Amino acid sequence: MAGASDAHETICINLVNLLTTHVRGRGCRIYAGNMKARIEEADVFYYPDIMVTCDERDRSLQYFKRYPRLIVEVLSPTTAAFDRGNKFADYRTIETLQEYVVINQEKFAWIAQILNARSPQFTKMF
User: Fold this and answer.
1) What are the backbone dihedrals phi and psi of residue 56, each rounded to the nearest 5 degrees, phi first?
2) Which residue among 41, 109, 111, 119 is buried most deeply as judged by most CB within 10 Å?
3) Number of other residues whose CB lies within 10 A of the CB of residue 113
C-alpha cells in the first residue's frame, strides 16, 4: 500500500522475515505489496500486503499471481471494512487459497480465515 504507516510497514517486514524462514526450501515465493493477485471469478486484481504462492503455474506469470496459498492484509482505517468484506469475498473464490490473515495495526489483534476442504469457513481470532 502506498503511503502506509510506520506500524503497517513494520508489521509487513517482520512477517515477511518470519515467512521467509518458514517457506525456505519448499518451492514457495513471497511477495510484499507490489505483486498483483488476479481473481478470475471477480475479474479484478488486488495488491495484497503479503502473498505466498507455492504453485508452479505462478512461476511463468511475471506481473500477477493467480494461485496464492496465503494472503495477508494489514488493516488501515480507510481499508478495514473492504479488506474484511468484499475483498475477502473475492479472495475466497481462489481455488488454491488456504489462509487469509487480517492484522489490525492499531491494536494487538489478528484474524486468520482458514480455507480448506475440511473447514471452509473456520475463523481463528487472536
Assistant:
1) -55, -30
2) 111
3) 20
Per-residue pLDDT of the chain (126 residues; tens, 9 = 90+): 467 788 899 999 999 999 999 999 999 999 998 999 999 999 999 999 999 999 999 999 999 999 999 999 998 888 888 888 788 889 989 989 988 888 888 776 556 666 654 445 545 544
Q: How many CA atoms lie within 13 A of 96 on its CB side?
A: 19
Distant-in-sequence contacts of 81-86, Cβ < 8 A, 24+ apart? 84/111
- Measure the CA–CA gap between 121 and 8, rounded to whole angstroms: 26
C-alpha cell of residue 5: 504507516
Q: pTM value?
A: 0.84
CB 67 within 8 A of CB 58: yes
CA proximity to 8, closest of 76, 70, 72:
76
36 and 64 in contact (C-beta within 8 Å)?
yes
CB atoms within 10 A of CB 82: 13
Residue type, 23: V
Phi and psi angles of residue 77, each rounded to the nearest 5 degrees, phi first: -55, -30
